[in-house]
Design goal:
alpha+beta, 16-stranded mixed beta sheet, globular
Length: 492
Amino acid sequence: METRDLLRHDPLTRVLAERALSRAAGAPLTPGNSVRILRNASENYPAWLAAIRGAQRDVFFENYIIAADEIGREFAAALTERARAGVRVRVIYDWMGTLGLGSRQLWRPLLEAGGEVRCFNPPRFDSPFGWLTRDHRKMIAVDGEVGFVSGLCVSRRWVGDVRRRREQWRDTGIELRGPAVADIRQAFAQAWAAAGTPLPDAELMAEESIAVAGDVAVRVLATAPATAGPYRLDQLIAAMARRSLWLTDTYFVGVSTYVQALRAAALDGVDVRLLVPGASDIPSLTPITRAGYRPLLEAGVRVFEWNGAMLHAKTAVADERWARVGSTNLNLASWIGNYELDVAMEDEGCAREMQQMYLADLENATEIVLGNRRRVRTTVSPHPERRARGLRGGSTGRAAAGALRLGNAVSAAMTNRRVLGPAEASVMATAAAVLVALAVVALFVPKLIVIPLVVFGLWVAAALTVKAYKLRAGAEHERAERTPQPSPTDDS
């Protein structure tokens, strides 16, 4: 009996598989939900706004980017109206994601109406590298009745502009009803606590308190830095996939272990496909992503580049049985560096719908192949939209991903661990040029190198001193509280 048949018919195998998935993801399987898959801003934004405007008790709103443009103002107005009506409204936006977008001014009316707004992880003197941790989640939870998880931020870029002939960005989200909404609320509470005082326990809900809404079993994957739940899950799904594994990603930078997992699946006969942007909102990232195509193509993984406006979806579908939608990109910044939120659905109906959506997307994509000299090339001429530039980024993962790809390529070149492809020539040239420039500066103007290093060293030393003082003061305070006070005695 084959693996798929065992999973369907053997109770022990099903239990073991479910336990493995739960442990890898760090999230239990929650049955009894309904799921509606939403494509692009044209389907997601109206559903979000309708839920917010119908809120009676509370609204939790968390997003990496909430721009102060006409789209952001529409959401802010809807939230403010609900706050004035007595609904508890809480909002989290990321400091880096909204940098330069005027988000602070956007929330003044909501704050005046009694809502609460938190900016996630702004820079602090005592944490020189703290800014690397970002809240990259995109979610809404309303009244414990409905939740939304997606890859969409709140900005006009996702809507497009017909007058300027700018298409809407391609993205995917889901609407979720049922007991798993409690898990989405718990995920919000996690990020809210990371940004300040925790939510009152009374505002959290148990799964048992939310009525069954359907027959879809889901896992809510709420990732915190250094937990790597989605990374373990993605590795496990790549290992368990029997027939197909179709991935869509925005800022793909495949680390060697995950690339090997995809290669092993493809070499074992699994139909592995990867769909990525043809024209990224960060043009400098495109050659870095393409540098990772060659080992995938050599193993039989099919790679496609999206034509048209930016592809921002982060999805996966395997064996017409399992699917994932959310905010996590296939790079280390998302896997272990950020707060991310995804929903994995173990349901044939949802998986089939995701698979059909994937096939429709491939109709607007160009396949990448190995040419006669095993050079990476496209099957047809690139679509004109691939030359689109000037769009502001949607993820901090691109910076870390780019650095990671550069480091991997340079390391491979120096150690001969693997054969490098022509697409990595530009990466090598860039690294060489940067090193030459630094060497020249260090030789002729050493102060330009030494002074920044000294300043940075003093900054880190001061930050460590502040942290050490706070830790010691906290320990002394706890010790004082534990020490019993002497009872008053009679001096006579």
